Amino acid sequence: MILMQFPLLSRSGLLKKLIAESSKEDGSSCVLQLHDVPGGAKTFKDITRFCYGVKLEITSLNVVSLRCAAEYLQMTENYGEGNLVAQTEAFLNEIFSNWPDSIKALETCEEVQPFAEDLHIVSRCIDSLAMKACSDPNLFHWPVAGSNCKQNQADNSALWNGISSEKPSQLHDWWFYDVSLLSLSLYKRLIIAIEVKGMKSEVVAASLIYYLRRFLPLMNRQSSFTDTSHATIPNTSEADQRALLEEIVELLPNKRWVTSSKHLLRLLRTAMILSASLSCKENLEKRVGAKLDQATLVDLLIPNMGYSVATLYDIDCIQRILDHFMSIYQPASVSATPCIFEQGALIAGADALTPMTMVANLVDGYLAEVASDTNLNLTKFQALAVAIPDYARPLDDGIYHAIDVYLKVR
To answer: How far is CA 109 from CA 1, 62, 104, 282, 346, in A?
Structure first.
C-alpha cells in the first residue's frame, strides 16, 4: 500500500521512522510501500480514519487485527495519548470476560496468527475460554450459545455419547457448538486447555465427538449397507477428513468409560472408509475391545472395505476386537476362572462373568448374522465361536442357531 498520509506520522512510530529514513535531500515527497500490515488494506484503512480523528468502532471481530496492526505500526502512547495500542488492549481485556466475544476474537486470530501469537492474544483467549467452559455459566451470567441456543441444546442432547441421560444443561456441554466453529488447530489447543483445567473426561470426549460429527458426515450414519440417512457430501476432501479423524482420535481421553461403544465403532468404521493410519485403527479397536460388552449388534456389522477379500462384513476386525476384550477379561495366566484386570486391580467372579456373558450373546448374534455370507470360510467362523469360553454361555441356543444358519447356506 502506498503511503502519503502525513497525519499518520503523529501516531505511528514505525511510519515516522520510515519517512525519516526515506526523506530526500531536495525536499521532494517520498512514497513508502507496506506489504506486511496485519489485517491488510481494510485494517490499514480503519487505522487511517482513526488517525484523522474519525471515530473507530472496535468490535470483537476487528479488535485482534487492529491490535496487531497497531503493534506493527508502533502506535503506542509515545505517539499520542489514547493511541491505538492502548485502546485495543483495553478492549481485549473487556471481551476476555465475555464468552461469545472471546470466541469471535479467537476465530479472527487465524487471519493474523503470527502476530497474534507474538502478542499472546491466542493463548489469552484460550485460557479465558477454558476457564469459562470449566465453570458454571449461570454463576457469572455469561450469555452462551448465541441465537442458536435452543438448537444447540437439541443438537448436544442428540450427540451426547450415551453415558448419561441428564439434560444438556446439567452436563456442562453448553459450549460444544461454539467451540466446534473453530479451526482444528485452535480447537485442539482449546480442548487441551479445558482438559488441563480439570474438565471431566467424559465431557471432553463428548465435545470431541460433537466436533467430528460436524465435519464427518460418515459419523452420522448407521453401519448398515442400506442406510442412506445423513448422506451429506462433505465440504472437505477425503485427505482432510482423514487427518481430522486421526488427530481427534489421539485427543480422546484414554479411559474405558468416557466414550460409548457406539461412537467408538462409528469412529472405527469411518476410519476404515477414509483409509486412516494403521495406528489410528488399532487404537480404536483396542478401545472398542475394552468395552465390547456395551456394544450392540448393529454397530458391529462393519462393512468390509478391503478389495482382496470377499466377505460382506469385516470379520477380521471383529476378531481382533474380541481378542482385545479377552486379553483384558481372561488373561493368559488364568485358565478357567473369569476375571478382569483394569487399572492394576483384579476383579473376579460375577463382576467379570457378566460382561463375558454379554459378549458371548453378542458374538453368537453376530455369527448368526454373518453366517449367511457364503464367502465366510469355516476357519474364521470357528475362530470367533471358540474365542468365548464355555462358562460364558449359560445357554447354547445362540451358538447353535448360528451354526444352523451357517450349515443351511452351504
So the answer is: 22, 10, 9, 35, 50
- pLDDT tops 60 at residue 331: no
Sign of the Cα torsion 252, 253, 256, 262 reads negative
Task: Specify the DSSP class assigned to residue 303.
Answer: B
E strand map for 5-103: 32-33
CB atoms within 10 A of CB 331: 13
For residue 80, how many other CB atoms are within 10 A of its CB? 14
pLDDT of 338 higher than 70: no
Element containing residue 3 per DSSP (H, E): strand 2-3
Site of grid cell 457469572: 140
Return mean pLDDT, the chain.
Answer: 83
Q: Is 348 helix (H, G, I), strand (E, B) or coil?
A: strand
DSSP state of 38: T
Q: Judge residue 274's burial from the number of C-beta atoms within 10 Å of its C-beta, 0-12 exposed, 13-18 middle, 19 or more buried.
A: buried
For residues 161 and 396, what is the distance between their CA atoms, to the nearest angstrom? 33
Entry field: residues in the chain:
410
Q: Hey, is 278 helix, strand or coil?
A: helix
The answer to whether the beta carbons of residues 355 and 388 sit under 8 Å apart is no
* Phi/psi-derived region of residue 220, left when phi > 0, alpha when psi is between -120 and 50, beta in every other case: alpha
Contact 166, 202 (CB under 8 A): no
Best CA proximity match to 160, nearest among 259, 300, 293, 264: 259
Rg (CA), the chain: 29
**In 358-382, which positions are buried (b, 16+ CB within 10 angstroms) versus exposed (e)?**
ebbbbbbbbbbbbbebeebeeeebe
The pLDDT of residue 175 is 95
- pTM, two decimal places: 0.81
Q: Are 264 and 287 in contact (CB under 8 A)?
A: yes
